[in-house]
Structures are given as C-alpha cells and as structure tokens.
C-alpha cells in the first residue's frame, strides 16, 4: 500500500511536467491557449523537440475532438480521464463549441489544486456556464451547469460510477473519452476492467488515448528507466509495446473497433502550412531526435456505435 501511494504521487507529479511543457510551448507561439497561464506559472526553457512533440500531441487530439463535435452536433459529452490542468473546457467555451456536458476526473490531490486555481481566477469562473443554477464546490470537486471536476481514483469502478452520476453524465448520448498518458500508469488488469466497464455502459462513444508506444527498443528502454528513476513504474506498459497492442487492449475489452498511429504519422498528417509555421519558431539541430521521440508516442482511438466507425487521423 505504501508503494502504491508512492507510485501515485510520482504519477501525479507528471501533471506538473506536462502542464509546464504546454505552458512554455504556448508562450513561444506553437498554439494559442489563453487559459494555461492561470494554472501554471512561468516555466523553464524546454528543448525544441519537446515543444514540437507537444504541438503534435495537442493538435492530433484536436482532430478527433473536432470530429466528435461535428458528428454529435454539440449534443454529446466529453469525459477527460486524468485531466490534470488541461484547459480544453475553457478553450471550447471560448470558441463557442462546447458539448452538452464536460466532465474532468483525476486524483483528488490534483482536482483540489485545480479547484483552487479556478476559484482564484475570475477569468476562469466567468467562462463557466452557470445558466442552469449556481456553482457547487468542495475542496476536491466542482459542479456547474455543464462542467464537472471530480476527484476519483479510476481504478475504483463503483466509486467512478457514482461520481459520473453526480456529474449528470448520460450513458446513452454520444460520448468522447480523453486520456493523455493515463492508462500506462494503471495496472493492466485495472485498465482492462475500466475499458470493459466503459464499453458496456456507453454504447455510442469514442476513446482517444495518447501515450507511449514501441517501448521494447533501446530508446524506449531508456525512457522507461528515466521514468523509473522518478518513481513512475508504468504499471500498464505491456500495452504500449506496439500499435497493435494499443489497439488490442480496446478490442479485447469489448470495443467494436480501434486504430492507432505513431506521432510521426500524426505530425505528418497535420496541415503543411501549420507545420512550416511552427518549424520557423525554433531551430532544430537534430531532426533524428524529434523523429525518435515521436516514434515512441502514439494516438490510439476506439469506438462503439456506428456514428464513430472507422475513425482516421485525416483532417475533416
């Protein structure tokens, strides 16, 4: 139990790392996010390959968010698993394309910090939809008309089920699940249990997952060792062996179909004009290092229902 708690703390610390990386890339102009600075203070310089990697990550995930919003006509819901300090809710509100409901889940320690930042900044509160009643919040949870931030351990299905009901989740409407480097920190059996439960409960949904891949080669082993040195043991790394294992984790858990792409493929699929723009922001001395990095991350998607069948990374 003590070991598990230590692992959880190291896993939660990765939220700070990812948020700081996104903050720095936004500061340089890789993409626009006027809300990230409310959650993350000024951060240290990051290498160009890290900034480009985060650009590909954010923009690649956006492709599927845009498709979901288009397919569901704004009548669906987004559930962000292990949301950390993600600002997607506010960015969608700012763009005028919010879903019907938006739910963020993470460890209570993380959601407590996020609640604090939200309550502290009027700019964040003002963007939250309060048309249908008042905002309700505790130390770790925050509930408004179409936004819910909830502290929960995703390994505990019964608790998760209760929390989703509190967040006014409707199980039969189109649903998008997001997970960025979340499942890899969950024991494979617990992750499988979670995916099976979601597949059974949500008949019309997609799951967009960003995390490591190709972890058996030399570069992947170095990545693993670096994470282990920080206390992150990657309990679910066996599902990150290849694109095939990434897809199979969903299909053996009851999802109707799945697909996966390395971040090299995702980066190359993004509009050429945008790639040229961001490549002018910083000089990249070693293109090979970026390629290696992108080869060891992927976006995988899975779906239930005919609305989202055969999703691809292609734009539009």
State the gist of this model.
The chain is of the alpha/beta class and 316 residues long.
Provide a descriptive summary of the structure in words:
It is an enzyme of class 2 (transferase). InterPro entries: LCMT1 (IPR016651), Ppm1/Ppm2/Tcmp (IPR007213), SAM-dependent_MTases_sf (IPR029063). Its EC number is 2.1.1.233. It is a single chain. The chain has 316 residues and is an alpha/beta fold. 47% of the residues lie in helices and 15% in strands. The protein has twelve helices and nine strands. It has helices spanning 2-28, 48-72, 88-95, 108-120, 122-127, 157-166, 188-201, 218-229, 243-251, 263-269, 272-279, 287-295, and strands at 77-81, 101-106, 136-137, 142-143, 147-151, 175-180, 205-212, 257-262, 297-304. Strands 3-4-5-2-1-6-7-9-8 form a nine-stranded mixed sheet, with helices on both faces. Strand 3 (136-137) and strand 4 form a beta hairpin. Helix 1 crosses helix 2 (48-72) and helix 2 (48-72) packs across helix 12 (287-295). The longest helix is centred in the N-terminal third of the chain and has 27 residues, at 2-28. The protein is globular and about 55 Å long. The protein starts with a helix and ends in a 12-residue tail after the last strand. Residues 1-6 have low confidence and may be disordered.
């Amino acid at each position: 139990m003590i070991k598990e708690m230590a692992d959880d703390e190291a896993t939660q610390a990765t939220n700070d790392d990812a948020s700081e990386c996104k903050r720095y890339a936004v500061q340089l102009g890789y993409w626009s996010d006027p809300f990230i600075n409310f959650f993350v203070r000024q951060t240290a310089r990051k290498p160009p390959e890290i900034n480009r990697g985060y650009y590909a990550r954010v923009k690649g995930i956006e492709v599927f968010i845009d498709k979901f919003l288009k397919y569901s006509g704004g009548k669906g819901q987004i559930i962000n698993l292990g949301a950390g300090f993600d600002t997607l809710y506010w960015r969608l509100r700012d763009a005028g394309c919010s879903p019907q409901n938006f739910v963020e889940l993470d460890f209570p320690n993380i959601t407590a910090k996020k609640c604090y930042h939200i309550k502290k900044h009027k700019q964040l509160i003002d963007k939250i939809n309060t048309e249908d009643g008042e905002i309700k919040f505790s130390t770790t949870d925050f509930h408004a008309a179409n936004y819910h931030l909830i502290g929960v351990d995703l390994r505990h299905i019964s608790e998760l089920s209760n929390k989703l009901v509190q967040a006014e989740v409707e199980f039969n409407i189109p649903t998008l699940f997001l997970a960025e480097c979340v499942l890899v920190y969950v024991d494979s059996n617990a992750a499988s249990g979670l995916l099976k439960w979601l597949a059974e409960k949500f008949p019309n949904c997609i799951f967009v997952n960003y995390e490591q891949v190709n972890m058996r080669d030399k570069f992947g082993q170095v990545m693993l060792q670096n994470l282990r040195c920080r206390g992150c043991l990657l309990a679910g790394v066996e599902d990150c062996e290849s694109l095939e294992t990434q897809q199979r984790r969903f299909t053996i858990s009851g999802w109707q179909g799945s697909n996966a792409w390395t971040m090299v493929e995702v980066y190359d699929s993004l509009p050429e004009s945008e790639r040229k723009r961001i490549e002018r922001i910083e000089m990249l001395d070693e293109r090979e290092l970026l390629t290696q990095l992108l080869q060891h991350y992927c976006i995988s998607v899975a779906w239930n229902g005919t609305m989202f069948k055969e999703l691809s990374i292609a734009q539009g």
